[in-house]
Amino acid sequence: MQVDSRNGDLAIAVLLLALAAFFMWGAWHMPAGTFSVPGPGIVPTILSALLGVTALVLLIKTLIASTPGAGLPVAFGIAPVAIVFAALTAVAVAFEHAGFLATLSAFLFVMLRVFSRLGTLRSVLAAAGIVLTAGWFFGSVLGVNLPRGPW
Amino acid sequence: MDVIHYLLQGFSVVLSPSNLLYCLIGCLWGTVVGVLPGLGPLAGMSLVLPLTYKLDPAGAIIMLSGIFYGAMYGGSTTSILLRVPGEAASIITCIDGYEMAKQGRAGPALVVAGIGSFIGGTVSIVGLMLFAPPLAKAMLKVGPAAEFALMLLALIVMSVVSTSSTLKTLAMILVGLLLATIGLDPITGLARFTFGSMYFADGFNFVAMALGLFGISEILINFENIANLKPTIKPTLRSLVPQLADLKASAGPIGRGTVIGFLFGFVPGISHVISTFVSYAVEKKLSRHPEQFGHGAIAGVAGPETANNATTGSCMIPLLVLGIPAIPATAILLSAMMIHGVQPGPQLMSEHPQVFWGLIASMYIGNLMLLVLNLPLVGLFVNLLRIPYVYLAPVVLLICVIGIYSVTARPLDIFIMAAFGVLGYVLRKFDFDVAPLLLAVVLGDRMEVSLRRALVISDGDYGIFLQGAFSQVFAGAIVLIALLQGAAWLSGFRKKTLRDVK
User: Fold this and answer.
1) Any chain B CB within 8 A of the CB of A21?
2) Which ipTM value was assigned to this complex?
């Protein structure tokens, strides 16, 4: 997928504005103190105000400097990004419930099956082999405490 | 004499079998991540960081720093043989290194890069050894006001030298500083932006952020870029022997590259990358045959490769003496030190001499190891590129998951890592440099503490930031940079420089 760099800059500037607003809102509820004796809220307030101004300048500059469609096309690999993010999120959810062997084997199987040309059986074998080796190395050799799950 | 005495103590630390092994592992892993495009020193260090928690502090720091300077060595290999920079500091080596390889002179290019790296790295360590102790002594007198000014100066310099636009870098710094405010207020203990969750009491896990922003985002980018890299040029051991003329032609560039690299190591941001561009420009300017540059000039390999290694020693000085990481790689080292209960700063030398002098001694030994190992093993390292990235990346992701879980045993950190990975991917796609964000997260907490402490000491008088020699020097530097930056904008110099660098 191709995204115009101008649109990307605009989207990020808007996100930064939203982030600044969020931090400003959060800091609003904290004791601000005074400029001479700053409280916990003063630094986030100043920083979010500065971020808001910076994001606004970026937004205006991008809008003024170029016309729509004038930016460079930026290639986005939406599918790999979405797959990796979803798989890592699934690992985060299942890791302690299903244990590292089952979770990481499933994760590696998906990664190999999707991104490499390995067949299903080979992917299963490779995933299981690599995870068992990693489990032995990290668990037994390095003493990392990995969750075992119900097994 | 004190320096020699302490250095000998450092050697006694590093020459223990276990620390020698950690040094060797660090150097080898560093070379591997330097060779593999897309896995630079940052990703390499982030990946191994959680695994070092089981080691003693000296061993952990020795191994991590070995990865840092090992990657600088390894990066040149793929630049010369494939025209693919293993990491950012080797981009400029592609130009003349690959041309030399095409002319059948890959061996001399690799050897000169190796020798230059060794000399640059070693001289830089001597500089670190000589400058760090007196500087640390002086820094003991620095109060919170000067400390705040110094950290502000570091962030300002970073925004100036970053290759992305100043506005974008500034935005990244501010986001980093805001993220650093998440957690308990360092002065009053009030919870900020934690939503009542204990998870965020200490803020975001730095390792999860670093792994996401640099490791995961790099993998995501490489899924698009690197399908199947195949080395086309494989040097034989015999071809590695350089001719006397090559060594003679490289002597000057290596000497100048050492000085340039050492000086640029103090500059926060991407000093190791900038130093290579400056070195290349200087060599081209001084050369009697500038027309040869771009067509296989050995000086175009020797200078930049020396310069990027010469930054490794001097960029450690701000970290070890001030406790301020100048570049993201030293931010990872800072994180490792803190986890091991070692606080870098002026008192590091007196409180943890085995870590400080052990690190310096290990850098001497590591540089020697890299010189001895790299040249004969160049074929092996190049063969690493035969492993298709589609097999390598899933295994690296697996190590990331295990590594991050081993830090805190909290699955949420895996999600944080993934989220910062996607964030880093998107930001990098649109030319937002993520290194300033990470450095701002590291410095943010301390900057706020310094600012508020200084104001408490001065009873709310902001004049404290201009009192004392250190504060005045740092404040003067900030004003000078602002003036120079303003003048550069007016003359259009910055735009031109950025265009040239890109």
Assistant:
1) no
2) 0.93
